[in-house]
Specification:
Helix content is 71%, strand content 0%. It is built from six helices and no strands. Helix 2 runs antiparallel to helix 3 and helix 2 runs antiparallel to helix 5.
C-alpha cells in the first residue's frame, strides 16, 4: 500500500505493538496454539471426552513450545525446522496417550483415536508456517549498523553470501 502509514502511526490504538512483537504473537498463535487447538478439537469430535481433548491440547502445546524455543535458529536449518514441525504434534499425541494409559482412565486414548488429531495438527502447522512466512516477507525488520563504512560493507557481503533474507 503506497503512501499509507507505517510503523507506530499504523498501530493506531495499539502503540505498543511493534513489528517484532507482532511477529512473536503471530508465531505463538499460528505455530503453537493453532495446531494444539486443532488436535484437541478433533480429539473431542472423535471421542466426545472433554478430558481427552484437553489432554491432547495440553500435550501438543507443550511439545510444540518446548521444540520451538527461540534459542534454536530454525530459520537457518530448513530440515531441522521441518523435523520440529512434524514431530511436535506427534510427540504431543504420544505423550497424551501415555498419560491416558498411566492414569488408567475408563477409555484410554489409542493410536486410532490420535491419527486424525495429528493429521489435523499437521495441516494447521502447514497453514501456520505459510502465514508466518508471508508475514515475515511483508513486515521486515530493519537492522541499523553502527561502525565504519568498511564494517557495514563487510556485514552486507556476509549477509548476502549466507542467503539470509529479510
Amino acid at each position: 500500500m503506497a503512501g499509507g502509514p507505517s510503523g507506530r502511526a499504523a498501530a493506531g490504538a495499539h502503540p505498543n505493538l511493534t513489528g517484532p512483537r507482532a511477529q512473536r504473537i503471530e508465531s505463538l498463535a499460528a505455530l503453537r496454539l493453532g495446531p494444539a487447538l486443532a488436535g484437541g478439537a478433533i480429539t473431542y469430535a472423535h471421542t466426545r471426552s472433554e478430558w481427552q481433548a484437553v489432554l491432547v491440547f495440553a500435550c501438543m502445546a507443550l511439545a510444540l513450545t518446548l521444540l520451538l524455543r527461540p534459542r534454536y535458529p530454525l530459520h537457518l536449518m530448513r530440515v531441522g525446522s521441518f523435523a520440529v514441525y512434524v514431530s511436535g504434534p506427534l510427540l504431543g499425541a504420544l505423550g497424551a496417550m501415555a498419560i491416558s494409559e498411566l492414569t488408567r482412565s475408563i477409555s484410554p486414548l489409542t493410536i486410532d483415536d490420535l491419527i486424525a488429531p495429528v493429521l489435523g495438527a499437521w495441516v494447521m502447522v502447514a497453514i501456520g508456517v505459510w502465514l508466518v512466512h508471508r508475514f515475515l516477507r511483508e513486515h521486515r525488520v530493519r537492522v541499523a549498523v553502527l561502525g565504519t563504512a568498511e564494517f557495514m560493507w563487510g556485514l552486507f557481503a556476509e549477509i548476502e553470501a549466507s542467503g539470509v533474507t529479510g
